Amino acid sequence: MFKKFNTDYDRKEFCRLRKLVKVQIRTSFNTYISDAQNSLVNNPKAFWSFIRSRKGDSRIPGIMHLADETYSTPQDIVNGFKNYFSTFYRNPGDASSSPVSCTNAPCIHLPQITDIMVNEALAKLKDKQTAGYDEIPCFLVKDCRPILISPLCTIFNLALRSQHFPSIWSIAKICPIHKTGKQSDIANYRPISILCAFSKVFEMVLYDFIYPLVRNYISPHQHGFMRHRSTTTNLACFTNYACHILDNHGQVDVIYTDFQKAFDTIDHSIIINKLDSIGFSQSLLQLFTSYLSHRSQYVTYNDFTSDLYVASSGVPQGSNLGPLLFLIFINDIGAAISNHFLLFADDLKLYYSISSINDCLFLQDRINAIFSWCIANNLHLNIKKCKVISFTRRRNPVLYDYTLNAVSLNRVVSTTDLGVVFDNELRFAEHVRQVSSSATKTLGFLIRNSKNFTNLHTMFSLYYSLVRPKLEYCCLIWYPIYDVHIKAVEGIQRKFLKYMSFRVDGVYPARGSSQELLLERFSFESLSKRRISNSIKFLHGIITNHVDCPSLLESLNISVPAGTSRFPKTFLNPIPKTNILSKSPSFIMSRNFNIYCRHADINFSPLSEILKFV
């Protein structure tokens, strides 16, 4: 009206209403921010939903592409995902031609399921709103636990007796999850299965019974999906080996492999034969055959769904039994390559100390053995993504042209292994640079999006959850020993503490302010001290069996003093010839314990008492 008639009354009314709207917007926004930060205590899920919304739109774009095809409507997009995901699967093989490793394993059979087993599985169910094909959300199943225990127990036992997995539980809802690259490219997504809640409970019951029975069968070189093992144990085993070789001026060649859609292409007949070979009873084999066969799924997006399509191979990702079945499937690859290899689920690396061309030929034989195993097990390697790196500080390393199926492997000077950047001299300078850069960006996001927060506790929680994990992930592997790297990592925390001082005082601390005073003011520990504590925690876990890694336990040398010493040492470390050995995880753990906790008893003292010495 004001622009149309341009009268004084309309102008004043417009100004009044504009001011009122601005006040209401500001009030509503402040209420929104206040509710968001207060929800950290009352409703953490809502708080982290707020944080994810501030980090950017993670939804699937409205226009998607796959090769030369373009999909612009929700229905076309889900069908595009369906067409792409359905290409992952392979036709089932002939069970009679599948390789079987015969063993004298005892028969594994599942006794009758009890109410206690069902109750324990229901208690583990995550309290989420996600629902599978039956549209029954997990939180509802968990909340109704008392009345569901008995009928579920009856249904589960009926499934065992009939050796048939309920068909409705074999239908999975698929959510596309972005991996890397352009978000508009369908090829950059992977399928995650959302199963029926009752199916999850049944799988938990089966898993809890079967895992302890097959755990000792699975190779100690496998660190993925194994209790008390992790990416840290995997990388620590390799780093220990490589550091000792390089400290003696040697060379270690490592082959990194890449299986093509491994979880989606497992041949069902082969995995059933492998279950048979380790002692699964016929009734359990029939049940697992029913579980794997005739699985179907559909893609969902924006309340649109695709048609059902059959998953004729593989194990459902997002299930409880799927990872365990995969570990059993890939386990006998160790028999083909004997030793000097490590697995994290389907991430396989094999390595060997190289002193002559004969060592290279030996490693090449192991590569050929892997390829033969893949052919026998109907699994394919993505040769373009397989690579070789030679770890050494020699001036004239032995550089051999390794091949896979007559194709030369790509030789690199650095690679990312389970989230840690390894350079060919094990200096980890590039990893420190990438970690510092990533943490700085995340800290900037935190500062930009929390300027309206008034609760300092919320700020600390954001730092603990978003920034500090980046600075401490697998820090035992890339443990910085040079001041330039220590300061680069410590500087990220210093920026945060200076910002918190600004939020409290209204001004930033003066340039060159004492780091110790900043740490003391906010009751923080330096990252260096936290790394020391974490290394001792990890060492304590190895000694007390909370970390299941025989290789790391074997690498620790207990000191047996010849006489009384003023400075007793619990562990005996070798004398390094270079600084490389001092970077090995076992050396770091032992050294830190000897320096800071020499008066503690690692075998009998509680961890809390040991850490008081740090």
From TrEMBL:
InterPro entries: RT_dom. PROSITE patterns: RT_POL. Residues 158-404 form the Reverse transcriptase domain. Pfam families: RVT_1. It comes from the Eukaryota. This is Reverse transcriptase domain-containing protein. It comes from Photinus pyralis.
